[in-house]
Every structure is written in C-alpha cells, then in structure tokens.
Amino acid sequence: MSRLRPVPRKHRRRLSWPVCGSPAIRPLLFCLCALAPWREALLAPLPAAAAELGVDGTRFTVDGKPTFLLGISYYGALGASPETLRRDLDGAERLGFNWIRVWATWSAFGDSVSAVGSDGKAREPFFSRLRELVAECDRRGMLVDVTLSRGNGVSGAPRLQALREHGRAVETLVAGLKPFRNWYLDLGNERNVRDKRFVGFEELEELRLAARRLDAKRLVTASHAGDLSAEELKQYLDVVGVDFLCPHRPRDARSPGQTAERTRQYFREMKNLGRVVPVHYQEPFRRGFSKGWDPSADDFVTDALAARDSGAAGWCFHNGDNRQAPDGRPRRSFDLREGRLLEQLDAVERKAVEALARSFLQPQGSKP
Q1: Superfamily for 19-361?
Q2: Among residues 45, 54, 157, 187, which is most buried (max CB within 10 A)?
Q3: What does the pLDDT look like over 151-170, one tens digit per residue?
C-alpha cells in the first residue's frame, strides 16, 4: 500500500472568483453559456493537468501510482469564500486528505450554490466556481468527487427529474471539466432511495454512456444508500457499468465493526461475477445525524482503517449539519458561508481528523 504523497508547492496558488478571464470579456462569456453551458469552460486557458485519477484492478491510482483515497465531505464548497477555500484546502492537506466531495447540485439553509440548474445547464457564477475549485485541487495534486442528485427536498427542491435534464447536467459537467483529470462523477447520490432521488439502473446506463461519449476515460459511479445486495451489485457492474462501487454503509454503532467483512464480501461476489472494481466508501456515518448514536473519534479511525486494510480503495470523513438543532448548527460542510469547515468541527471530530492523520501519514507497519 502506498503512502499518501505530499503535494508539490509549485501547483499551489490563491483562489479568486471567478476564473473566467478579464472583466471586459465576462459578459460575452456569460452569453455564450446561455447558448451552450460548457462553452465558457472550454474557451478559458487551462494549465497542464497536475494529477490524473485512474483505476487499476481494485485500487485507485494517481499518476499511475496506487493510492488510497482519504477524503473529506465538502458539499457546500461553491458557497465558500476564496479565503475559506484556500485555508480549508491547506488544512485538509496538512491532515493527509487527498480528495474532497463536492455537490454540483447543492442547496441548503435557503441558499442554492448549484453549479447546474434544474434544466441541467450551467448556473453562474457557481459553475465557474466549481471549475476553479477543480483547477485549484489539480494544482495541489488533490482529487475531487463531483456529485449530482435529483434531490429530495432536504438539499433544495427536487431537480433533474427527467432523464433529458439529468443527461444535460452530465454533459455540462463532463464537457466543462474535461481538461482536468483529477475528478470523477457520481451520477446520482443514493439513487436507490425511493423518493425524488431515485434513478433507475437503465437511466444510469444512459447517463454513463452520455459521459463516455464526451470523455471516454472519465471515471463514473453512482452511489447507493445502505449495503449492496448481490443482485444490486450485479446491476451496477453489468447494467450501469460503473468504474467503482460507492455503497453508503449503515449509520449505527455496529457499522465500524462490520466494514472489513462487508468489503471482503463485495470482492468475493465480484470475483464470482467475473468483474472486480474498487470499493469506495464515499459517505460513511457522521456526527449529528443518527438519533441515539454519535460516532466517537475511535469509531471514525476504526472504520477508515478497516476499509483500507480489507482492500477498499477509499474512505471519506463525512460531516454535515446537526439534525437535532433547530438551525442545524454546526452545519459543517453543508453551509460554508459562515466559516471554515475545520473551524466548525466539534472536539470529537477534531480529535478524529488528527488521529486519522497520524494513522495514514505514517508508513504502514511503523509504530505511532
């Protein structure tokens, strides 16, 4: 297993909104966006890619080297100030996180920062902000999960309910972010839930093909709420054709102790099916969500190490609002208008991320 690799300083620079050329030409670029949602992104000059995400068997690779993805939820990134983003990314790197999860359809607490609209077209200034964020992460050697969701009313009004609009959103993102090789696309967050979020397997296949037509090498997945049954796993592999699995494991006290065996079970089932892909724990449990149980720092570390040591390809330190508080505070990554994510973490979460850093930044097999 490779170590998490430091990021070359040469890839870093300060963020500034937006990234779309000089003020004199921005009105023209916005007009072009109205005609084709990805035109603006294609016209702006781009730096050479600094990080390329790939898949090799059951592992992710970065620039061809096997790399475990240790990430952190950063859903409302497009509503954060440039200074907040810069400082959060600096802090995430210090702690050993090498990827972030950002929603392209995020709306919470009365504020929509979605990069695509309900029609699937680019929505400014947030599409440009997404592009700049991916570019900044690329310069740092970091990776980005870009997630779409049809919504269920919690993260804004339902959107992309028709395949046409959903497909247009996929095309907008894939075409507009195509020059960058450091991101992957989640076609539908928890797409199996039978509410407005639901996206059928056949629809997912069409969406994956739409992405492939524009970018044959773009990695694509679709996340699943709960553990996967053998039949569901088969559908993801054979019908949808995902590049890796993204099960969102149950959020209860038993979960950390089950992750290792559940991972090994997925690999056994995939081997029987004749196609084995990475298992990526993109959205595990978090604090402020489950009634009667808030994970401890040890729970986070246990789950992350169980994922890595059982052969999973990635894991995410998930965080979000406090469902037990009327105003949702601390809202963490769900609302970054009020301050940095790392400043919104509670004492248990801060202890957890520091412990994760000690566990993942040191060579495996060495003593703390």
Answers
A1: Glycosidases (3.20.20.80)
A2: 187
A3: 876 667 789 999 999 999 99
